[in-house]
Write a structure and sequence with these properties.
The chain is mainly α. The chain contains 19 helices and no strands.
Length: about 500
């Protein structure tokens, strides 16, 4: 065609060749797409259902009632019936198919997980029949409504990865919830509901702010002043009365709390002096650097000497995290920390108001209301991550936030300080959630399973949003979101462990 001068036909043939090559490449890459998507989806769904089944059997009144009806007093029946036989047949058939297809060993791992998770569900089909028969129509309708609301909130959190403004919408809905439906929290006063609404709206403002705000010294100082004022209020007897408790601290512990409040004030002053010195080009004063590191170290040493009463521990965690957080802030992050702390305190009061006389109970069964608490916990975790940006935001990784500790380029040390700044709000949320579970005498493992199941629902969403077409940025972003969602599941375990460490020996009296 070229020799004959038919260049238009050459261009047409070249385009057809390119299109055929792309279609062939697409076919090659997606040859096992249907099989893998089906198997992995069944694995995720099976794992979620298995977690919820475990919670229902071991941590709910329905599971206890079902166990009491069983011959051996335990709901998990191990019978060699058609379920086991069907599982063996399906496993053998799937293994044979993969062997004939010369599939890699990883495909066998994908295939075995759905079988492992769905088999216990089929074995406990008697419990499912008992659950549906025991629930009234009204309860089933309310459970279905809660399911719809839960899925809607989780989908909003998925959208928050792309549009941070969705977090503000979520906080507006969560803030209005007790006001519009006061029966959800029968023990909550009107002042508590509207205070909760105000704090939720205030916290919801921060996702609307730009993530690349840069350095604003006056915002840090103003936030530090707010943190100091809140710290002073938290050491008063009114803080105990807010939780319905009586102040009974020993003088030594009161002096220790005063020291922590002073650390918050000193941290704010160090930020002001250090940034002023750096702006004048005189460098980081040595005494400021020493004080910064001393505050960072002293904050962690003091918590071991604090009282074990839950109110004192909440105050201590707030103060321990506040001073170093101020030293690592560059703009409105401290204001966010204060707003988040106030909202978390009201969350404790709101959740504990729905159950009366919980101190006299050794354990409380998990109910659908505790699923709502799990949703709130996830929302707080995500706003802790995206409230002032996100994991890859300029605000979270502004290198100037480490200048109060070191000005020489030390990547590992600077990275460790920045990671601590990101983790601090998560620790505050995790400790608050543990206090709520202890106050309500809810099994922490059961609460963890509920949150884990909710997190897996989001991971399944991101699995379907992974792209293999478009720009490199779009493909990489979709894979990153899926990886972050799965990493968040692992982070939940670490956060629960960290909250146990920070609140070791916590007492309710």
């Amino acid at each position: 065609l070229i020799s004959s001068g038919n260049y238009q036909a050459v261009v047409t043939a070249s385009r057809e060749l390119i299109d055929s090559s792309l279609r062939g490449l697409q076919y090659y890459q997606t040859y096992d797409w249907a099989l893998l998507m089906t198997v992995i989806t069944c694995g995720y769904v099976g794992w979620i259902v298995y977690l919820l089944l475990t919670v229902a059997l071991d941590y709910t009144s329905l599971g206890a009632a079902y166990a009491s009806r069983q011959p051996h007093g335990h709901p998990r029946q191990k019978q060699l019936d058609w379920v086991t036989g069907g599982t063996v047949v399906i496993s053998a058939g799937l293994a044979a198919y993969l062997f004939l297809q010369s599939a890699p060993w990883l495909y066998y791992c994908y295939a075995i997980f759905p079988i492992l998770f769905w088999h216990p569900l089929a074995q406990n089909r008697g419990f499912l029949r008992f659950a549906f028969a025991s629930e009234s129509v009204g309860h089933l309708v309310s459970d279905a409504l809660l399911l719809v609301v839960s899925v809607g909130l989780l989908e909003a959190l998925v959208l928050a990865y792309h549009h941070r403004e969705m977090l503000s919408v979520c906080f507006a809905v969560v803030g209005l919830w007790p006001v519009v439906v006061p029966s959800m929290y029968p023990g909550a006063t009107r002042d508590l509901r509207y205070s909760w609404l105000g704090c939720c709206l205030a916290t919801g403002v921060f996702p609307l702010l730009p993530i690349d705000a840069g350095s604003w010294l006056w915002l840090v100082v103003f936030g530090g002043t707010l943190a100091f004022a809140l710290a002073v209020l938290s050491t008063k007897d009114s803080a105990y009365r807010l939780f319905g408790e009586t102040a009974g601290s020993q003088p030594a512990y009161r002096r220790l709390r005063t020291v922590k409040v002073v650390l918050v004030a000193v941290a704010t002053l160090v930020v002001l002096i250090t940034d002023t010195s750096l702006s004048r080009g005189t460098g980081l004063p040595f005494i400021n650097q020493v004080v910064s590191w001393a505050i960072f170290a002293a904050s962690w040493l003091i918590i071991a000497l604090s009282e074990r009463f839950y109110v004192d521990l909440l105050v201590n965690v707030y103060l321990v995290l506040a001073a170093p957080f101020i030293l690592l802030s560059v703009s409105y992050e401290v204001m966010f920390y204060v707003s988040l702390s106030c909202t978390l305190v009201l969350w404790v009061l709101l959740e504990t108001s729905r159950k009366q006389d919980v101190r006299d109970q050794s354990m409380t069964f998990i109910t659908t209301q505790d699923i709502r608490s799990g949703l709130f916990y996830m929302l707080f975790c995500y706003v802790a991550c995206f409230g002032t940006g996100n994991i890859a935001s300029i605000s979270s990784f502004e290198i100037s936030s480490t200048y109060r500790f070191v000005t020489m380029f030390m990547p590992f040390l600077m990275g460790a300080l920045l990671m601590w700044k990101i983790v601090a709000p998560f620790l505050l949320v995790a400790c608050t959630f543990r206090v709520i579970n202890r106050k309500l005498h809810i099994s922490e493992s059961g609460a963890f399973f509920v949150v884990l199941a909710l997190s897996d629902v989001m991971s399944l969403n991101f699995f379907f949003l992974v792209k293999d077409y478009g720009s490199w940025r779009e493909i990489g972003e979709s894979i990153t979101h899926f990886a972050i969602a799965n990493t968040f599941i692992l982070s939940l375990l670490l956060l629960f462990g960290a909250s146990h460490l920070l609140l070791t020996g916590m007492t309710l009296k």
